[in-house]
Each structure stands twice: as C-alpha cells, then as structure tokens.
Design goal:
Length: 500
C-alpha cells in the first residue's frame, strides 16, 4: 500500500466528520486567515509579481520536458562530488535504501528534516518496523509525532491544533520520547518553542544519521537545496556523520540561474516572508566538514505516471508552498485529514490521483477517486499558485478520468441512470417538450410546498423526493419559470413574424 494513503474513508464521508468538529473549524479558520493576510502583504510589495509567476512556471515546465537529461546530469555531478545515488521506483524501494544505510551504521534512531517525500513513502513507519526510531525535528512535525497524529497541512502540519492542545501534548508525551517538558510549561508560543528546542538538542547532538528531502536539486552542479524557517534543518544537514536525502525526481532544475525565481516565489507564497531564514545547500561530501557519507535517493513513486498525463503533468511544477490550501474554502472547513493523504488540499486532490492512478480497486482506490470532487472549482488556488498550476482544469480532467475508469463497473448508479434519462429526453424534440412540461408542473408543486425564499424574492422549490433529496439537501433548487422557452416561442412566434 502506498504511503500516501493513510486509511481514511472517501472524502465526502471524512469531510462530514470534520465539518462537525467546531474546534477544528475554528483553528483552521484562524490559521489560514493569518497566513493569507501575511502572504497578501508581501506579495503586494512585488510590482512584477505576475511576471515572476510566469518565470517560475516556465522554469519548472522546461525542466519537466527535459527531465531525463537533467536527472542524468544531477546523478553524474553528485557522484563526482562523493555522494552515492540510488534510484527508487516506489515507496518500498526508497524505504529499503534508507533502512539499509541506517542498519549499516548500527543506529537505532535517525533525525529528520521536514520532508513531504519521506512522509509520502511512509518512511517513519518503515524504519519503525526495522527497530529504528525516526525523530521529526520540525516543530509542527514534532507536535504531530508526539501526539500520535497525522499532518493536516503541507507547510504547517499541526495547523489543526491550538496552543493549549500543544501544551498538553508536550506535557503528556515528551518524557517518553526523550527530555521531558518542564513542570512550569505554559501555552505561550515562546515557552513551547523553548521546550521543543531543549528536547530536540539532545537528539541533534547524539544522532549519527540524518534524513532529509530537498526543495530543489540543481542539475548543473549536483546541489540539493533545503529552505526552512527554524534552523532544525541546518542542524540535521550538518551534525550527523551520515546524511540520506530522499528527493522526488520532479525537484530538479537545470541551473542556478533557473533557481532564482523559485527562491523568490516560495517564501512569499508559503510563510509570507520576503526570504527564507535558512537556505541550506550541499553537493556530496566535503572532507572534514559536515556529513562524510552522503546518499541521495531519487524517487519516482508515480511521478512518471503524472508526467505522462498531458493535462495533469503541470502538477509536478508544485514547489510545496501550500498557498492553494490557505485560500481553499473546502480545505478551510474540512482540514487536511479529510483528504486521506499527506498531500491535502487542492494540490493533493490532483497529485494523488495523478501519481496513483484512478479506477483502482478497494478502499484506497475509492478514496483516491473521490479527491477530484473535493473542490468547488472556484479558481482561488490557481490565482495564488506561484508556478501557475491550473488546478481547476486538472480537477475537471481527472473527474472525466474517474468516470471513464468506472464505465464498465457492474451495477447501475443513480448518476448513470439520470444521464441516460437526460440523453433519451434530449435526443428527441417531442420527448424533450414532454419532459419540460412535466418538470414545470412538478417544480410548481414543490414551490408551493417549499418555504425558502431566494435573493430577489423568488421562491425555491422544496426538497426533491427519493434520490434527489441528497442533492437538494445542501442546495437551493430554484423554482422553474411559469412558462418554458419552448412554450413562449410557440405562443409569440406568429406575432414576431407579423412584426417582420
């Protein structure tokens, strides 16, 4: 089973549970509003922001179209610099490489930089099965790990928690994982951060193996790049004797020059900062400085599948800024857990089906197939995406793929029956006229029974009976006009012809 699937039900069922959690909705609304406001302020400072977006999109698109050559150059440069490069087709192969390196050095723990790729492949769970503890060192990831929780946001994994909840997690769980929380711990952010810093310092100083991902990989020099805000990444990348980096193959860019617009787009789009507090780069092994053994795992895990999709491949431009999550009305109300994946929100709704494929059997397949529908298609995600991924267009295309994948399924679905009935009506003028008359009569009856008034004073039809009740239970059904266009045309056509 893919590490991206975390055992949640299909999105509609998971979303209903999330919507009933008022504390969750409050936490999400407050956090996303704060991040949106910060982003808007710093983006507004850039006069040519749209030109910068175009430049970033062009860099990523060009790199994807020539990906094979760039990856070969990256491998060549990394190897020349003393790194060992591994190619992993899937999560199982990638986890096996990291576990083998840890076993070779006889360690029972590793420290980790925040990494979506390692979360995607389920690395922590795979290492735990080998008796190796993987300690998250990003503050939000630490909160999630200590709480036995799952991340719900790409950038702020613990966005669904408030500071009072975090205090209780630290007091309850820190001692079992290492240095305990102080007895006088409060829920002040600075105090919580200090407790986490003291807890993690012991792990940094004793760890022999570090694990990271990478935000970018520069092919021309064989350089990996990690950007972060806390400094924990710098500690993981420099203190251990051995470093293993798991890098998605889509992270490659050809040159340092191509990296320039991306490093200007990412901090403003993600944390609302003008630049990243920490930008760490490394290329293989430097004698006497930093890790003396470096492994790089280049991960596919469905990325070539996504690359082959002419509409969806643009999703691989994603630089994991999470701007689309922060503006999405669906995410703001349901949170990330409802998406059942480490990639939540609008980008997760397209990345997961693209990388795993739609129409698969079992609960994982049903959950994946539900994701393209987890959107209102409002378009806000495209407006804020720093690399101009047209998420709404990809969602619509994936919905078509989901429908096509299930055309041969056994059993008759209500949607299919409705579409066949519509096709039967629209294929003959007389049948369509009859359907219009019948729907008009039914609509007027429902309107008399209904009590909803729409804007402008118009009455809304009541809830539809039978299967239609599920649709009208969450939507207003406008009352049909007293006269259809067809009837109006038949009544007024002689008059119109006389006027000519």
């Amino acid at each position: 089973m893919s590490g991206t699937f975390v055992g949640m039900p299909a999105f509609p069922a998971a979303a209903r549970v999330a919507l009933a959690d008022t504390q969750l909705r409050h936490n999400l609304a407050h956090a996303t509003r704060t991040i949106r406001d910060k982003r808007a302020a710093v983006v507004g400072e850039v006069a040519q922001w749209e030109a910068l977006r175009l430049a970033g999109a062009a860099v990523k698109e060009s790199a994807l179209l020539d990906l094979d050559r760039h990856l070969e150059q990256l491998e060549e440069r990394l190897t020349a610099a003393g790194a060992t490069v591994h190619w992993a087709r899937d999560a199982e192969e990638a986890c096996a490489v990291v576990a083998a390196v840890a076993r070779a050095h006889g360690v029972d723990e590793v420290v980790k930089v925040k990494s979506m790729a390692t979360a995607e492949i389920g690395l922590n769970e795979a290492l735990a099965a080998e008796g190796i503890a993987a300690w998250e060192t990003d503050l939000a990831e630490l909160i999630v790990q200590l709480g036995g929780d799952l991340p719900s946001h790409i950038l702020v994994p613990a966005i669904h928690r408030n500071r009072a909840e975090i205090r209780e997690i630290f007091r309850r769980e820190m001692a079992a994982a290492g240095r305990p929380a102080p007895d006088d711990l409060t829920d002040e952010p600075a105090v919580l951060a200090a407790a986490a810093r003291a807890h993690l310092r012991e792990k940094f100083l004793r760890a022999k193996v570090g694990v990271s991902g990478a935000n970018f990989a520069v092919a021309e020099s064989g350089t990996l790049v990690v950007v972060e805000s806390e400094g924990n990444g710098r500690m993981c990348l420099t203190l251990p004797e051995v470093l293993v980096s798991v890098v998605g193959i889509e992270k490659v860019v050809p040159t340092w020059e191509a990296l320039d617009p991306l490093l200007r787009l990412l901090p403003r789009s993600s944390t609302g900062e003008r630049m990243n507090p920490y930008t760490s780069t490394w290329s293989g092994v430097t004698p006497g400085d930093g890790p003396q053994e470096v492994h790089v795992v280049l991960l596919d895990a469905g990325r070539t599948r996504a690359l082959a999709d002419e509409v969806g491949r643009q999703a691989l431009r994603c630089i994991r800024c999470s701007a689309c999550l922060n503006v999405c009305p669906v995410y703001e109300r349901t949170g990330g857990h409802a998406y059942g994946s480490v990639y939540p929100g609008p980008i997760g709704a397209i990345l997961n089906p693209l990388m795993k494929g739609v129409g698969q059997a079992g609960p994982e397949g049903a959950q994946t197939d539900s994701l393209p529908y987890a959107s209102s298609l409002c378009g806000a995600c495209f407006e804020v995406c720093p690399v101009r991924i047209d998420i709404p267009s990809v969602l619509v295309d994936l919905r078509a793929q989901v429908v096509d994948a299930h055309r041969g399924d056994r059993g008759v679905k209500g949607e299919a029956v409705a579409m066949r009935a519509a096709a039967w009506s629209f294929s003959d003028a007389r049948r369509l006229a009859w359907a219009e008359r019948a729907s008009g009569v039914a609509g007027r009856v429902l309107t008399r029974l209904g009590r909803t008034t729409l804007p402008g004073g118009r009455r809304a039809a009541g809830r539809l009976p039978g299967p239609g009740a599920a649709w009208t239970g969450a939507r207003d059904l406008p009352a049909p006009p007293r006269e259809s266009f067809r009837a109006w045309w038949a009544r007024t056509r002689p008059t119109q012809e006389d006027d000519r």
